Amino acid sequence: MIRIEEIYANTFWSYIRRHVPRTRFWFLDPPGYVGVEYLRSYASSGVEYNYLLAFDQEPLELSRLLPITNHICEFENVTTTGPGLGGIITSEYNSNTVRRLCQILGWHSFYYFYNGWVALDWFRGYNRTFVIEPFDSRQITKTFLSPNRIVAGERSHRLVLMYNLLKRDLAHNHVSFPLICPAENISVYHASEQLRSMYPDIHQVFESAGLPLSFNEPEVPSFASARLDLHEQASESLLYVINETVGTGQRQHLTEKTFKPICLQMPFVMASTAHSLSYLRQYGFQTFDSVWDESYDNELDDFKRMEKVSDLLLSLEGVDKGRLFKQCKDIVMHNYNHFYNGGFENILWQELEQMLDDIRTKLFV
């Protein structure tokens, strides 16, 4: 297993300095911070020819990324001799943003699933605890569990999803949702202002809900992403609504959030970009199209997709939840074992080795 805090030094740089000589390797540190001031790099002594940026932690937004790539280009124009080939390593699959960036800069792009490695590292060992209620012992009383914390900025799909859940009177399930976004420090009313042309009553719906909605648990610590929690709520819920970081645009960018229900032995529905379920299946996981309708995954309109997710959740309200939960057991246990018993890691490692070989082939000069 890769120690995620050492991936740049011990995995990437140890390979690059041996097999892609005269290349400077750029990355951002600490993880999650984006800006020129957070740029770090490794470089061998001697003349440099090529440069490679790992922007694999966060979603790609050109407004945030171009100042970083421009800084690198300016630096390399001064320090390099020769063709100066550039490349970017991302964790976005089939991404229009990646294609546009490489078109602007003339760089090569390389992909691997960074957040898959994050999840393996962060959630290791939970299969050797007793904090998770055994699958067969659960008493299912709620349709879903849906935690939401950051809802502003680039996460407008979460506002749309919450609006649709409230309109369908589904907030009696295990749902959290803030009044003030903790990351942007703005209210959901301010954050949803641009959505009022499509949903004129969105402010009234939020006001009627009596936000914030919470789980009556202690304040969420800053490292909550790196742990499995909400065990009690999980043990009572038929499924987990994965409110992914990215929910708009043509791309797949999944995070550790996708793997929380897998490690909690839960079925799931995904509030993410189109074809995210198909993308996840590429890594050996199974989804629940044999149990309920997953056609929402094929909806290309981002807001309509959130509506279809909400319609699916509403359709599950009146079913025998315990019986339906048991129908999911084989899929749930396959995913759990695939995550913890090496299957997922083997796929990730083959992918990573192939990417490094592609880097060597395209950037070796």
Q: State the helicity in percent bands.
A: 25-40%
The mean pLDDT is 93
What distance separates the N and C termini? 31 Å
List low-pLDDT spans: none
CATH topology of the largest domain: Rossmann fold
Total of domains: 2
Gross geometry? globular
Major sheet: 5 strands, mixed
Kindly provide the radius of gyration, computed on alpha-carbon positions and rounded to a whole number of angstroms.
22 Å
If classified by CATH, what would the architecture of the largest domain be?
A: 3-Layer(aba) Sandwich
CATH classification class of the largest domain:
Alpha Beta
Strand order within the widest sheet?
A: 2-1-3-4-5
**In DSSP terms, counting alpha (H) and pi (I) runs of 4 or more, how many helices?**
14
Q: What is the ordering of alpha helices and beta strands?
A: HEEEHEHEHEHEHHHEHEHHHHH
Number of strands: 9
Provide the structure class: alpha/beta
Question: How would you describe what is shown here?
Answer:
- With 365 residues, the protein is α/β, with parallel strands linked by helices.
- The chain folds into 2 domains: 4-111, no CATH class; 118-340, Rossmann fold, CATH 3.40.50.
- 39% of the residues lie in helices and 12% in strands.
- The protein is built from 14 helices and 9 strands.
- The strands form 2 sheets. A 5-stranded mixed sheet has the order 2-1-3-4-5, with helices on both faces.
- Helix 2 (62-79) links the parallel strand 3 and strand 4 (86-90).
- It is globular, with a radius of gyration of 22 Å.
- The protein starts with 6 loop residues before the first helix and ends with a helix.
- 40% of the residues are buried.
- The model has no long low-confidence stretch (mean pLDDT 93).
